Amino acid sequence: QVQLVESGGGLVQPGGSLRLSCVASGTTLPFSAMGWYRQSPEKQRELVANILRTGVTNYADDVKGRFSISRDTVGNTVYLQMNSLKPEDTAVYYCSFVRPGRNFWGQGTQVTVSS
């Protein structure tokens, strides 16, 4: 059974950086896409960034130029480097790995940007 485990969240001051990681276990099959979503009390869950199996990346407009998504060569770990963090980036961040017809989710990691 596929399990996703996230790490790297925490409290950071505005302008700071964090790096999130998400590791998949219980499978050796590739994923068609890997990504990060976030959800805050004021908003519905939204896509932050994803990376397709082809290597193509997509970003939400408000994180372009600040966040960077990458993956390891094995294809079971995805990272989200977050720079120039803003208070409005505060949310629970979830990783999502996709196969045709299936979407796997991590448990979420809290990111709080505050002085």
Provide an overview of this structure.
By secondary structure, the protein is mainly beta. The protein has no helices and 11 strands. The chain is globular, with a radius of gyration of 13 Å. The protein starts with a strand and ends with a strand.
Rg over C-alpha atoms, rounded to the nearest angstrom: 13 Å
How does the major sheet shape up?
7 strands, mixed
| Average pLDDT number | 95
Class based on secondary structure composition and strand pairing: mainly beta
Q: Helix fraction?
A: under 10%
Topology as a string of helices (H) and strands (E)? EEEEEEEEEEE
Number of helical runs? 0
Oligomerization: single chain
Q: How many angstroms does the end-to-end distance come to? A: 40 Å
Low-confidence stretches: none
Please count the beta strands (DSSP E, at least 2 residues each): 11
Overall, the morphology is globular
Task: Please state roughly what percent of the residues sit in beta strands, choosing from under 5%, 5-15%, 15-25%, 25-35%, 35-45% or over 45%.
Answer: over 45%
In short:
With 115 residues, the chain is mainly β. The chain is built from no helices and eleven strands. The mean pLDDT is 95.
Write the layout of secondary structure elements.
Blueprint: E1 3-7, E2 10-12, E3 18-25, E4 33-39, E5 46-52, E6 57-59, E7 67-71, E8 77-82, E9 91-99, E10 102-105, E11 109-113
Parallel strand pairs: 2-11
Antiparallel strand pairs: 1-3, 3-8, 4-5, 4-9, 5-6, 7-8, 9-10, 9-11
